[in-house]
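Q: Convert this sequence to structure tokens.
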Amino acid sequence: MLILTAPQIRQILDGAEQRVVEAVSRAYRLHAAGRTVLPHSLFLRFPEEARNRIIALPAYLGTAGDTAREPVAGVKWISSFPGNPDAGLERASAVIVLNSMRTGHPEVLLEGSVISARRTAASAALAAVTLAPREPQTGVTLIGCGVINFEVLTFLRALLPELAEATLFDLDPARARAFAERCAARLPGLRTTVAERIGDALAAHRLVSLATTAATPHLDPSPCPPGTLLLHLSLRDLAPETILSSVNIVDDEDHVCRESTSLHLAAEQAGHRDFIDDSIGAILAGTRRERDPGALTVFSPFGLGVLDLAVADLVRHRAEEQGLGTDVPDFLPSGAR
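A:
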């Protein structure tokens, strides 16, 4: 068993945004081609504190027939405890296990929260490049100033070199200011503005990333300029009426229309899913449809386990090349039973 810690994974992935995006794009295209197995995520919730949850995402990522790559199977086990930041802890924690496709034995154990955050950010940046209006995107609005949106901003800067400005909003102004200070230290040359009102933040740019801990719809998108692309990463910010009146792009229709997401609520209200226009995988595979350039476009990725596997497999191979990780040869029982 190879064990990889968070610092080792950061060492491997820092500066590798393009490679992570390539891995995520490939996973989306394989999923669109039917070369994945993706059971529904399993949500473990607790009666004492309904907002806390631990989620299991099992998945299988196949190949496109090329002999240079091998299929991957595994599972991500990720917790979300929104009260953790108040105690100085990260909201999310996770592990990822990769299994041998020959024996089924677990082969690699990876800290999962870094991989999870970066595959989410890579997905958002890929959508921004693929779905945004044709003119250059020079600014982005970030609603929610936590780990995910910082990773989103890092990946956007890697994929959109013209991006020069970020407008920030958080319910906690101190959190937004701290985010801006981190941007100044880690992303030189980027101008940041902290908005006092969410409406002002939404009006600032045609690219918006939503990464909040909201459990129910709360956002009025009316201040958004025509043609805005909303990266709806937190999935529960928008009312059904907003979803039903927007152009909707998803990662997987069946996965995203559950667990009280905004699209789930919209489907229940409408009695159908016809409001979903396309999937990101199909678009990347070349079946993009024409859409109203002045409409609000909403990208709602449920967060597919195959993305975690794709990035975890990238980490595993780079760790082997660099001699990183701790090998525990006697982790499993030896011999046949």
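The longest helix spans residues 113-131.
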